[in-house]
Amino acid sequence: MTSTTAASPVLEIHDLRVDFRLAATTVHAVRGVSFSVAPGETLAVVGESGSGKSATALSALRLNPEPPCVYAGGHILLDGKDLLTRGERELGRIRGADLSMIFQDPMTSLDPLQRIGSQVAEVLRHHGGHSRAEARAAALSALDEVGIPDPERRYRQYPHELSGGLRQRVMIAAALVARPRVLIADEPTTALDVTVQRQILDLLVRLQQRHGMAVVLITHDLGVVAETADRVVVMHRGEAVETGDVHDVFARPEDPYTRRLLDATPRLETAG
Ligand SMILES: Nc1ncnc2c1ncn2[C@@H]1O[C@H](COP(=O)(O)OP(=O)(O)OP(=O)(O)O)[C@@H](O)[C@H]1O
Ligand SMILES: [Mg+2]
């Protein structure tokens, strides 16, 4: 977490429009969303279920299933270059290396049949330039960095041998081992116990500070936003209804939907 940063944005989303063309109807999941995030900055995206948070996040790596997804408009610029116009091969080079994602459920993102260490090492192998031994060493140090005890032993284990919290740490290690400049975390702690959630969020904040990443954090939890984010985007029905500095938006919400959202979270007021 930093105060408002003057650095220029690394990821910019301009007027993004995402449709899902289904048999009977078209869902306009994202209807003209714009925001940007700079190195060292945490941008939170909040809003009720179905408001288009994940569809927006997945667009940054073109990970919405096509079909039914159609990118109906807008631009997603990574260092000024539009990701929506890249081919699959170039996106494959960008995913995990320049821009990484962490999802809610590590069980669906980890391969159950592969040892966790190789899954982390594979990210580096995929992007080339690392021998097997180098990738293994980097994966071990990534497991260590995310707080996995006894990484040598854990390296050889399979996902089902780990607790949910440890699995999420493995996902974070895999997301960060190639040192991406942007990390998008979509509800990264929702599946975890409250105490473990806390630890994982603290870990993300520490890693972000150490590596100066830009972080986009999608969450339902406004308490988490207040504690970890610099700026916040409030989404409602596919639109970004309010964007601003977290403290300003929480202290003086301008949009009626933001006000409703804050009113529904009394804990925040007592937390000050
Ligand atoms: N693969 C898909 N196929 C069809 N419709 C989809 C698909 N993915 C998302 N949608 C629709 O797009 C809209 C936005 O969904 P999205 O997953 O982005 O919401 P969200 O804000 O992430 O919600 P949640 O908080 O529940 O994760 C919803 O109406 C959803 O049903
Ligand atoms: Mg979602």
UniProtKB/TrEMBL annotation:
- What InterPro entries does the record tag this protein with? AAA+_ATPase, ABC_Ni/Peptide_Import, ABC_transporter-like_ATP-bd, P-loop_NTPase
Query: Which Gene Ontology terms cover its molecular function?
Result: ATP binding; ATP hydrolysis activity
Q: Which UniProt keyword terms apply here?
A: ATP-binding, Cell membrane, Membrane, Nucleotide-binding, Transport
> Which superkingdom?
Bacteria
Q: Give the membrane topology.
A: Peripheral membrane protein
Q: Which N-terminal residues, if any, form the signal peptide?
A: none
What are the residue boundaries of the ABC transporter domain, all occurrences included? 11-262
Q: Which CDD domains match?
A: ABC_NikE_OppD_transporters
Q: Which GO terms describe its cellular component?
A: plasma membrane
Any keyword Disulfide bond?
Answer: no
Give the subcellular location: Cell membrane
Instruction: Give the PROSITE patterns listed for this entry.
Output: ABC_TRANSPORTER_2
Is Nucleotide-binding there in the keyword field? Answer: yes
* Membrane-traversing stretches: none
Family of this protein: Belongs to the ABC transporter superfamily.
Q: What is this protein called?
A: ABC transporter ATP-binding protein
